[in-house]
Each structure stands twice: as C-alpha cells, then as structure tokens.
Amino acid sequence: MGGDRAPHMAIEGMSLAAHADRSLRFQVFGDATHIEPLLKKFPELAPITEFTHTPDVIKSDDKPTIALRQGRNSSMRLAVDAVVKKQAKGVVSAGNTGAYMAMAKIFLKMIDGIERPAIIGSFPSASGACVMLDLGANVQCTAEHLVQFSIMGNVYAKEILGVKSPKIGLLNVGEEELKGHSVLQDAAMILRRAKKTVNYYGFIEGDDIAKGTVDVIVTDGFTGNVALKTIEGWVTFIMSMLKEVFNSSWLARLGYLLSMSAFKGIRNQMNPQKHNGAMLIGLGGVAIKSHGGADAYAFSNAIHVAARMVSHDLNQQIRDSLMQLEKDLKKNPAPVAS
Amino acid sequence: MGGDRAPHMAIEGMSLAAHADRSLRFQVFGDATHIEPLLKKFPELAPITEFTHTPDVIKSDDKPTIALRQGRNSSMRLAVDAVVKKQAKGVVSAGNTGAYMAMAKIFLKMIDGIERPAIIGSFPSASGACVMLDLGANVQCTAEHLVQFSIMGNVYAKEILGVKSPKIGLLNVGEEELKGHSVLQDAAMILRRAKKTVNYYGFIEGDDIAKGTVDVIVTDGFTGNVALKTIEGWVTFIMSMLKEVFNSSWLARLGYLLSMSAFKGIRNQMNPQKHNGAMLIGLGGVAIKSHGGADAYAFSNAIHVAARMVSHDLNQQIRDSLMQLEKDLKKNPAPVAS
C-alpha cells in the first residue's frame, strides 16, 4: 500500500517479476477494495498469490513510534509478521522508510554478532557496479560496526553482484594510513588482520565511488547518505542540462535524434529504477525497501533482490564470515605499539 | 613552482589575469632558471612584476612538518612571508596543499573569533552557483566551528558570488529538526538565533547541493571533502560515458557534430578549471590554493579570487559579522528547555 504509485506498481511489479522468475510465490497484504480489482487485471498471478485483506495502512508521514503502536493491523506490519512467523521468506515494501525499518529491526531482530543493520545499495561505476553501505541507517558508527558492514558488503557483492573476491574500501578523505577519524584507522587495523575474511583494499576517496576502485564502499550512515543523495542530485542536474542542450537549437535537436539510441544506453545505466532495492542488511530475515517513487519495473527489481537474498542464503554466509573473522583475529594478533 | 604544469601555467595565468584586470601587480617567487625565460615570453608582465629568485622548492610529497622546518628559503614560504610582511596583499599557489595550509595557518594566523580556517569553494548548481565549506581542512568540527563557517560562507557568497541575502543550509541526512548529529542540532539552534547575521535556511540533504536549494552549504571537512570528490568523480564518469555514446556509431558521431556548440556550453559550466581557487577562509591574510592540475586559465581564476578577496576586504566583513553575531545572541537568548 506504500509508495507514490501504489498499489498498482506493486501488483504490476509482481507480474513482471513472476514472468522473469517462475519460482516466485507471493503473499499480498493490503486493502481489498484497491488490491482485488488489480489482481483481476493480472490473472497470471492468481495461482501463485495469496491475498490478505488488511484494514489499516501506515501513512508516509507517520512517525515510526506511532506506526509501531497503532499499526498492528497495517499491511506493512502483517507483511513483516509473515516473515517472522516463517510464512514468507522475505518482505518487500515501498512504504514509509522509518516505520518499515523500525518494524524490521524490532520483529526480525539481528544476526548474532551484527550490532547494527545497515542500508546497502548498488551503484553503477566505471568498472561496472559497486555496493555501498551504510546509506543512512546509522548516523554514528564505531570501528566494529564498520568491520561488520565490510563483512556484510563482502557477502552481498559476492552473491548478488557475482564478484569473486570483492575489494573492500573504507571511505575517507585521503589514502594515507593516518588520514581521517580514529574510528576509520581502528577499522582499517582490524580489516588488515582479517586476511581470510575479506580482501581489504584500504582507504578510498569520494571520486573512487564512480571510478569503481573497489567493489564495496564502507562508510557510516551519515557520510553514505550524503554521498548517495549528492550523486542522485548531480545525475538529475546533468541530465536536465543535457535535455536543455538538445532543445537549444534545431541542429542540436537533430543531433539528439541521430544519437538517441546510443543515449538510451546511458540513461538505462544511470536509471535509478534499475538499482532499486536498497535493503537493511544484518537483520534476522530478508526485508527489502523499494524506493517510494518506484515504478512497476523498479518494484520487480526489488522483488528479485529479495529472492536472491533468500536463494543465496546471505544470512548464513554472513554468520560464516563472522566465524572466519574470529579465527583471523586470533591468528593475526593486533600489532603492539612500540 | 608547484602544480603539474608549473611554472609555465602560473606565468601564463598571470598574463591572462593582468589582461582582464589592469589593477593587478605581481611578486613572483621561484627558480630563476625556469622563471626568467618565461617572464621574457610575456613581456607585458615586466612593468607590473617583481621577481625574487628562491633556491628551494617544496616538493609535492613533502610532509608539512618537513616543509615548515626545511623550507625557509622555498618559493612557497617566501611568497607567504610577503603577505605576512604586508609586501603583498594575497598569495596564490598550486603547490603541495598540506604544506601550504600549514604555512598559511602558522604565519598568517587566524581572524580573531574564528577558531579554524576552512576550505571554501564554489560549485555550479541548478540555480546558478553555490559555495560549500569546509571542503577538507577540519575532519571533526564543533557546533561553534559550523556557525563560524556559516558566517564566512555568508560573506563569501555576498562578496564573491554577489548574492544579496545568501541562504545558509547545514548539510544533514534529513530536513527534520531532530535529524543527524547533536553537533548539527546545536549549530542550527545558534544559527536560528543569529537573525541579523545570517539568513539561515535549515537542514539540507545531499541532493540539495545540485538543486541549488541554498547559496551556502555548511558542513564539516570530512563530509565536505567526500561530497566534493564524489561530485568530481561522477562528473568525470558521466562525461566519459557521453564520449562513448558519441563514438558508438557514425550516426551518433554526426549527432555530436550537430549539437557540439550547445555541448560546449555544458562542458564550460561543468569545467572544474572555471571553479578553481579554493581558499582557506578565516586566515589573517589572503591565501588562495589553486588546483594542482590547474592550467593557465584556471590559475588566472585563482588570481582573480585572491584579488576580489582583497578588494572586497572579506576579512573585515567577517570581523563585522562576528560582532553582529554577538549582538544577535544577546538579543535572542537560547530557549530554556522546559
């Protein structure tokens, strides 16, 4: 029920996703007056979909605390509950981010050994794609949080992006070992010892995000959120300037028509809808957050991310990595200051 | 003597700057064997230039501590000294950033009431241009530092960009009053009371940088540096993708030729060389840092920024604003928690 184009884009997104992945099965939670007519529009969903009518909806401006207290019969809460009760393997929502995260954290709990969930997402880059976390769940982080983010990002890049030995970089203001906060230096020290757990590259700077210097960019949720939104703002800005350029004269318009097919490629690569499906990683269950502005295609991508999380059993791999980290740290003790 | 294309681009940059601004007078510090032949190439500089031979040069990888100790006869140090001794009104260098900042801070000292200098720079945005600080001088900041940055950014936007009543925004991860670090909330509280000193807008997010929501973006040096370099990386990335698009077929190439003149406009607007001349604001004297990769045009822009700083007497205006702030804070006491 959440998101700018809901619930239509959610049901159409299910149809698109089911078309691409025949193994999918759905449980839908929402208002019958809206959902039932939509389900009739996509009859192919009938045999693979179970619908539950929910009278309440979490509104986009509801405070998380209010949503938790008053939203017990909301579509969002019941969808999360289905994962808690193991009736579903994962949940996807385009609704109120704060409320969704609060519910996911409280009811799905955390993986043992992960202290904080992080928002992870993927970006296009000069070398293909990279993942970045935390994109906004934790404004302040300790070195241990950053190490846990590195482990989760590593597993995600391996399993979801298919990178064999992902390079992990810590976002900083310089590459030298002594640059930045002490939290970053402490995290780097631990990651250097985690030789068999992760392929730690070192500190990276803001321009390395687009360069694709590493596969996994690790940062606190404040810096990550600023970087993410700065990129979104600039991509929109440049695209609107391009539009202006092509409308500036009839010659330019003709030029656009001639190069249009090539342009579609670039627009596709930049398309935020393609990279939809930021998720809270570190939870005891799979919970994917679709962009509120998602269309059906973007929503189907969020569904695919959820399905891949489940089929690759990311959480088990994160648990295994945490055990490997413990072994690594025992084997490679911290250097003693001389 | 510093910078990738030095000293040629510096001397040529002087010539370009002198052409545009007849009031400029130069003192040049550097190695005579390199500088003197260059000065002969630009004879128009002879009557307005005083040259001092300096035997030593600060190398780009010298540590600031080494540069301070061993660089007493370097071109950089003697150029800074000329401002200290009031023989020059400002200094411009494209050399080693760390060494330059250390020298500037130690020898030019700070404006009374400003605790930390900040790196300030201007960016293109959807509404024209905006300034952002701190771009990397201070990894950690207090609320008071952010308030001082706001005052300096305000004066800069007024005098250098010509904005009448610049809107000041604090970079955060959400617009709501309770979002982000306590440092940001404390700074916002002070800025709300500084009614006659600045036009405080509120919290902004990363995408507001390109949108031009405010004229002055205030943030700590860690976040500012990451945002700056993230933008630089993405602009380069998108430009290289565009190049690829236009080379992808003969139709696309023809399209480019037709729209080329319009494209030049966009490239010009994005041109980092145009926005050259980041500076340390808050110092007792004018010290401009040109990009190391600057060409002559970019270097001339850095010279113009220095000249404008001097002619508009930015430092006096910053002192006046600090006095206004004191009055404002007395008149509008902090709200008492109830």
Topology record:
Two copies of one chain form a homodimer.
Chain A: H1 8-20, E1 26-30, H2 32-41, E2 49-53, H3 64-70, H4 75-84, E3 90-93, H5 97-108, E4 118-125, E5 128-133, H6 143-161, E6 167-171, H7 182-193, E7 199-204, H8 207-211, E8 216-218, H9 221-246, H10 250-270, E9 278-281, E10 286-289, H11 296-311, H12 314-331
Parallel strand pairs in A: 1-2, 3-10, 5-8, 6-7, 6-8
Antiparallel strand pairs in A: 4-5, 4-9, 9-10
Describe this protein's structure.
The structure is a homodimer of 338-residue chains. Chain A is an alpha/beta fold and 338 residues long. Chain A is built from twelve helices and ten strands. In chain A, the strands form two sheets. An eight-stranded mixed beta sheet of chain A has the order 3-10-9-4-5-8-6-7, sandwiched between helices. A two-stranded parallel ribbon of chain A has the order 1-2. In chain A, helix 2 (32-41) links the parallel strand 1 and strand 2 (49-53). In chain A, 49% of the residues are buried. At the A-B interface, helix 8, helix 9 and helix 10 of A face helix 8, helix 9 and helix 10 of B.
